[in-house]
Write a structure and sequence with these properties.
The protein has a domain of 160 residues. Helices cover 48% and strands 9% of the residues. The protein contains eleven helices and six strands. The strands form three sheets. Strands 1-4 form a two-stranded antiparallel ribbon. Strands 2-3 form a two-stranded antiparallel ribbon. The radius of gyration is 27 Å and the shape is globular.
């Protein structure tokens, strides 16, 4: 008697559909990955192009050496949250090459008590707790203690050591982090070693910027002769400083841009050009203006 041939076992329809869905999902993921790889350079190029367009749109035709920034913007101790600062750093720094970039940096902030002016009795900065913090958390903690806007601190970090945007920002050196704010860093000598390091630089820079008004120290609003550069032969002009914030910036960086520096915008002026306060104005307009 002949054997009856067994029929092939049929795969249930539900299993077939499930396998198809899995296959389609895998194919879709591969396609999405390929598309992302293809467009990533375009996204990067577009972001760079947009940044350059914004840079070129910033001009200094209305630059007023007597009013570099308003008091309300300068002394805003609640200008940004730590999360907003972190997002800003992520966006501006871009792809970090190591953990020294400000988007990744974590370092120790020593605790500090309140600082009170001996001259006026006014509080320069409130005390704060220390700890190992991110760069964004340090900037936020210091802005609130000293009442100096995080935006001002970010622009100062850029104008002093290019730590927020550009090639340097992606992998700053220990020396650049050590002089982050240019605080207690004279033009003709090394920085004060007791004020070296990212966290100490943020603390000292913000304290100095606040102390000029709180301690009624150095230039105050009014007419002052402001030089164009450290070279006395380059001259300068009388400037009517209209507010405490502008006075603080000239106390911190005691030169005004000359006509060549203004005309050059992001470029190089002449042998008598100084760029600190010009670059402050440019980056403020680019990022927050």
């Amino acid at each position: 008697m002949a054997k009856r041939r067994s029929r092939p076992r049929r795969t249930p329809r539900a299993t077939i559909l499930r396998r198809r869905r899995i296959a389609f999902g895998v194919v879709a993921l591969v396609l999405v990955g390929l598309v992302m790889l293809a467009i990533a350079p375009l996204v990067s190029l577009t972001a760079a192009w947009n940044t350059e367009v914004r840079r070129q749109a910033v001009d200094l035709r209305d630059f007023d050496p007597g009013t570099l920034i308003s008091d309300a913007e300068f002394y805003d101790g609640d200008a940004m949250t730590a999360g907003e600062i972190q997002s800003f750093l992520d966006d501006q720094v871009g792809e970090c090459r190591d953990d020294s970039c400000l988007a990744r940096l974590r370092t120790e902030l020593p605790a500090r008590g309140p600082i009170v002016s001996d001259a006026t009795g006014a509080t320069v900065c409130e005390g704060y707790d220390g700890g190992e913090l991110s760069a964004a958390e340090i900037i936020d903690r210091i802005q609130r203690a000293c009442g100096i806007s995080a935006k001002v601190l970010l622009v100062t970090l850029q104008k002093e050591q290019s730590l927020v945007s550009g090639r340097t920002a992606r992998a700053p050196s220990p020396e650049q982090l050590g002089a982050a704010m240019g605080a207690r860093c004279p033009d003709d000598a090394p920085c004060d070693p007791g004020r070296s390091g990212f966290a100490l630089q943020i603390a000292q820079g913000a304290t100095d910027l606040k102390s000029y008004s709180a301690s009624d120290f150095m230039r105050q609003p009014g007419q002052h002769y402001i030089a164009y550069s450290p070279d006395p032969s380059c001259g300068g002009s009388d400037v009517t400083i209209t507010n405490e914030a502008t006075a603080a910036l000239y106390n911190y960086t005691p030169y005004q841009p000359n006509p060549a520096a203004i005309a050059a915008r992001w470029g190089t002026g002449d042998a008598c050009s100084a760029y600190g306060n010009r670059n402050f104005a440019l980056y403020w307009a680019l990022w927050f203006g």
